[in-house]
Amino acid sequence: MKNLPYRLCCLLSSCLLLSLSPAAAQQVTVTGVVTDSLGAAPLSGVTVHIKGSTTGTGTDAAGKYSLPAPANAVLVFSYVGYRTKEVPVNGKSVLNVSLSSSTSQLQQLVVVGYGTQKARDVSAAITSISTKDFNKGIVTNPVQQIQGKVAGLTITAPGGDPNASPIIRLRGQASLTGGQTPLVVVDGVPLDDPAQVANIPPGDIASYDVLKDASATAIYGSRGANGVIIINTKKGMAGNPVVTYSGYIGIDRVAKHWDMLDAAAWKDAARSIGTPESTIETYDHDADVDWQKAIEQTAFTNNHTLSVSGGTEHFTYHGSVNYINQEGAIINTGRNAVGLNFSANQKALDDRLNIQIGIISTQTNRKYADYNIFTYIASTPPVYPVYNKDGSYFAFQDFEQANAVEHQMRQLNTGKERLTIMTGTIDYDLIPSLKIGATGSLSYFNNQTGFFQPSYPIENNFNNGNQYTEDRNSKKGNLHINYNQTWGKSNFAATLVHEYNDFIYDNFKASGQQFLAEINQNNSLENGNPAYNEINSYKEEYELASFLGRVTYNYNEKYYIEASFRRDGSSKFGSHNRWGNFPSVSAAWRISGESFMENVSWVSDLKIKAGYGVTGNQDAIDAYRSQQLLGSVGRYYDQANQRYPLAYAPSQNPNEDLKWEEKHGMNVGLDFSLFNNRLGGDINVFHDKTKNLLYDYTVPVPPYYVNTILANVGDLTNKGIEIALNGDIVKGQHFTWSANGQITFIKTTVDNLSGTYAGNELTTDDIPGGTAAGRGLSDNPITYLKVGYSPYVFFLPHFVGVDDDGNQLFDDGKGGQVTQGDLDQSMYRYTDPAAKFNYGFGSTLTYDQWGLNFFLRGVSGQKIFDDTRMLISNINRLPGNNVIGEALTNGIKDAQVASDLWLEKASYLRMDNITLSYTFSHISALQSLQLYVSANNLFVITPYKGLDPEIRITGDDLNHTDVTNQAYIDANYGSDGYYPKTRSFSFGVNVSFK
């Protein structure tokens, strides 16, 4: 301490000398232009900051920047998709910088599950999509941002309902009864239910990493059989605070209508089939209503996201608030949501300690459609009015008809969802190559729905209502060790993790009917008829414990090998199979790194890769399916106590041998980048086999308690080819043109549906699938899971025409023809409806500040059974319903039969979205400003005669609802209905403030 004054004097002297130094004192305003590696195209939005400080700026649309800086400073240039570059100022006032292009994104970090890798080092089948490649326009669910962008990934939005979840399938069907949606991981935390992805604000998402093959997804073990979609939200960067706003307003209209008869044509058609004039007059209420349009509206949407981010070299943060209000194109439907997102990263102890925290919280309010109204509008004659002359609703109930407008407007059908995900990670560098840490997360999801249907006297119904609430919560945590070391040309990395997950689900429902005061709706359920009051509740809990490890090695960035192993233990399964093992291995060879490729200048990068892995599907079953369960089976008379207590009996057979389905997958791929990274892409060939398929099989009752048991039997195979390409076609100073596309060929085959359990043979050659809703023989299943065929293969008679009396004729399989009365199933034939391939193509063109982006998506070779068209074209139902004009000319006069007459070709090419934008070159108060107009579903080219060829592709959706219209059956008529697909237009703005 005695030398402290001397040290202070020395320090002050040094500071004085530095302050007098010309280099330290001098300030210069550095200006310049940032371009790509060829120096041709300016880069907009490049972050430029002074190394070691928070002072920075960004380039404008012309790539220009201006930044005051010390003469001896170092400027850091960073941009997504390009290598970060540091440039000394050295007293210069002009610095033009070119950044190394990574069109092939070889330097980009890819999230591979429990860690990251450089894209150039990945040996598995993984596709990454960043913000600049997202689909534009009105996005109702975040995953629609990458719809059609990833080879092998099919995202289907079957209709325009803003409250419906899209169907997601990765590399075909992987289960018979279990969920088939990929695991969705947000910032390292798997969602408890994939449907919760709808509650993630799209504006907060920075990128997606899609893990496709088993060697990549095996790290997720018993949850990775359907693939993995990793969502990475936006994070803060060091520099001055940056405030950004993005928002749009848009309108939606129904894209297509059935060509239904108007009032005059309806009456003429009724007369043409001999309907008495008195009957026509009975139905005629002097109206001319298109009931399709009566339930529609022009729907308005507005979406706003405000965010702020920034920080220092040791602390960064990002926070945002999002609001969306979206009306549905059907009256009295829609949703609105508010979302908050915050993340922060703090470094300490000489940057050896790293602490990350994050929270995502959203609340969504929904107004649902009553899907029965779509049955009503197909069955209501145009001569029925919507309103009486006094403005009240016109009441009726004929056949399946009711006033669709009244039902949708008077019915209460709402939902409220709350999702909160809190995460925290702490990592500590023991030594430069060894890091230890822990991650924990809490997820809370609450869903509340309310329903009330008033009485409709003419329909002779009772009013009824209910309230329902469910909670899906979880606690997740892991301890992890990461090791990374380089020796000369060798690099070795290892990850070890112990993970624990606890899942709790519960629900509660109360309902009643025959309320005296309808004004209370469902808010006083106890005031209904006590005889009809019902209370139901349920709760389950299961645990998943895991041990996993991964090692990677590469030599000279030419030879790669990676292996992983995960061991999962789940409380869902019996004691015999509680633990499962999920190994994987992959390897890659960078051919372009070999000496014999040195003179092949047009090859920028060339890598061949191969992998094998085993994954599971524990989400296919509920928490207690391996156990014997008891349930109430009515009441019995207790003579001693003179009462009627509940009687209980077994409701489920136990199966101690129950285990998860397993998918064994192989993948061989080729990654390439050519012509100085102007053209890039990848090709993957895969072969996956799912074993131990779960299905409820019929068994002899003794010694079992019920006649079905869930058992592991059967196999199915997915094999295919994926091709993805991207390229910069033109890279000029003023004009650029880039394009990307993908095509996927997939063939799924049911190999086996039989096996044994406890010495009993469980065998079947086919499993019934969907049915048609029509008449005749259509009550029988028309699709099957059939050994040797694709899933949901059609089994239908072949229609050959009509006879002189208007009776349908069918091929008898022997060269002859039969009518409906002589038709039997021996004359039916199998037809594969599966698509031969699906594809997407996008392109971006820029000219100075103008930009044009469009994306086309399509499917080739699929067939759809147009059940709705079969039903509403049935002219024999006049005058009780409306019909489409085709019914008057197809010559069919007998009851419709489910035949291949209605199995239509349904290939399509859809203009998914197109966006025209203008980026302002320089506004003094702003860092950047962009305006754009966008259109979604602008057109679709298809031979399909229904409303839209994009329908549900399996019998379940992300919400796990019981959907009766099975794959490839357009069963829009009936209780499932069809919320028509919409066409939307929007105007938006993206702005960043300095």
TrEMBL record:
Major location (coarse): membrane
Membrane topology category: Multi-pass membrane protein
Residue span(s) of domain TonB-dependent receptor plug: 119-228
SUPFAM superfamilies cross-referenced by the UniProt entry: Carboxypeptidase regulatory domain-like (SSF49464), Porins (SSF56935)
Segments forming domain TonB-dependent receptor-like beta-barrel: 386-938
Keywords from the UniProt entry: Cell outer membrane, Membrane, Receptor, Signal, TonB box, Transmembrane, Transmembrane beta strand, Transport
Top-level division of the source organism's lineage: Bacteria
Cleavable signal peptide: 1-25
Pfam families with a match to the protein in the record: CarbopepD_reg_2 (PF13715), Plug (PF07715), TonB_dep_Rec_b-barrel (PF00593)
Subcellular location: Cell outer membrane
Family the UniProt entry places it in: Belongs to the TonB-dependent receptor family.
Protein name: TonB-dependent receptor
Organism encoding this protein: Compostibacter hankyongensis
